[in-house]
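thought: fold this chain, then report.
action: predict
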Amino acid sequence: MRQRTEGETPEEPSPVIRRALQRVFSSSSLLKTHRRKYCIFTYSAVKKWLSLCHGVVSFKTFIFCSSSSSSPPFTSLMPLLRSTTPVYQDGNHGIFQSSFIADENSTLYSSNSLSTDNTSFTLAFERTKRKDPTKLYNYYTGGWNISDEHYWASAAFSAIPIFVIAFAWFVGFGAVMLFSCCCSCCCRQRRYSYSRYFYAFSLLMLIVFTCTAIIGCMVLYNIQGKFHNSTITTLDFVKGQSNFIVNNLQNFSRNMAGAKSIGVHQVFLPAELQAKIGDTVKAVTISSDELSSRTSMNLRNIDNFLKSVRIDLIIGSAVMLLLDCNSLSTVWFSLDGFSSPVHSYCVEFFFFYTSDTCVAMDEWVLKPHIATAIDDILPCVDAVTATESLTRSKEVASELAKVVNDVIVNVSNAKFHSPIAPASSNYNQSGPLMPMLCNPYESDLRDRKCLPGEVSFEDAPKVWKGFICNTNVISGKEICSTVGRITPSIYREMMAATSMSQNLYQFSPFLINVANCSFERETFSLIGTDYCPGLERHSKGMYCSLTVFSASMILSLIFWMVYVRERRHRWYSKQFIAREGQAAQVEENKL
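observation:
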């Protein structure tokens, strides 16, 4: 189709197609409703056109009885996650009333380290440039965006030729059957022509296409099983990545909270830093809990949707195959011929969506932006929270190392009471001086290299263990009775602080990746290379196998009618020949 030039009046579709499209796509009056949060397909908003994709049994019954189906359709139409930052297009009001995910305000969005220039950046722009029937058949230019009803309308319209074929079959076959009935009633013939070769040919074609339909149904069942497994595997991968982030954030939060109570020989972190730790723990806990709840809810709903699609496809194909084999009535022929392309229409629409999503992921990995539609799949953790957490972890790790070193300098290695040390500093410590702990950060939180004579986190337990003295308890106080610089209780406190400082230091790479959204980019990159090829291959295989199955079923129905007609004519011919023979015999007897 050529692109409409500026000022040119758009082509108007035929009245039949226009009325069908008006039932398929959302009414324009819904666009005038008050602005809602972006969400994805729900029951109330899309039942007018989604009912076309509902179970084939209920679909056949209702399409024959009424022009508006009231059976409950699928609960949604394959979205993954709704964006929490609705900034994609002016005028996109979001016609869907309930969300596929949690609808609270979120602290999850793309990292500030990513590009913020979103005015000219759209995902999968070339691939999603399709006619949009809700905008006077102009081209949709919003890119991949599952929160935009115009994206779904344009994707559905791309598969509309199959629906037109189904509608043409429904109308054409009905007209042919009506004409045949009129001819049979008004122009009764007493003689029936009969061709032995045509009778054998129709029987042969009936067997061939019936077997092809059966094989196609088996192949379709096998491929949809593979497709279902691929989607479940992909969802499990996304869930695993989300769980990895959530678990690490929760572990980080627990470590930060535990650092507030850690002290060595009654020396603790500064009160101001402890207050900052509390704020950081609260922010991280909120982000991790929301990411966990949103991911669990969305993937659970997606899994339920995929199961419903799988069951509907299996039952629909089985029922159509059963009707094909039994050929119960000519009314079902028309409905079978209509519902088969409609199933192909739904599968092709689903193939468009899968391919669009994979292309959008690849483009986002190459050029990551904030506040794009890719947030609908796996949003980044709040960059402010992640950056603040990274700074606070460095601060606490450095302060804990300072606490340990202060105790080593002012208590363990002291030969007399330090003026800043508690009164219990003198416990008869003696012997070689203890090495200090290597602080991983400078005072400005830049990375710091260890100086000669300092011990690392890994070596500290073994090295310091050699400075433990044997103690006696005198007046409730541990006193060294042998050579040594620290008592067992001080050693345990120093190791607790050192271990906590090491844990927070090791969280730095993770927090850096969270802040710059590296985990999401890695996730989408792996999905594009490892999962998308299988999803596209299996969805395309479903479409091809369903097309073959539908075509074979329709042709088998046609040849079944031809075969039944020829068989009836054969029976009439035999009866006519028998009557002619009897009449001739009677004439001979009379003579």
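thought: worth noting. The longest helix spans residues 518-590.
final: tokens above.
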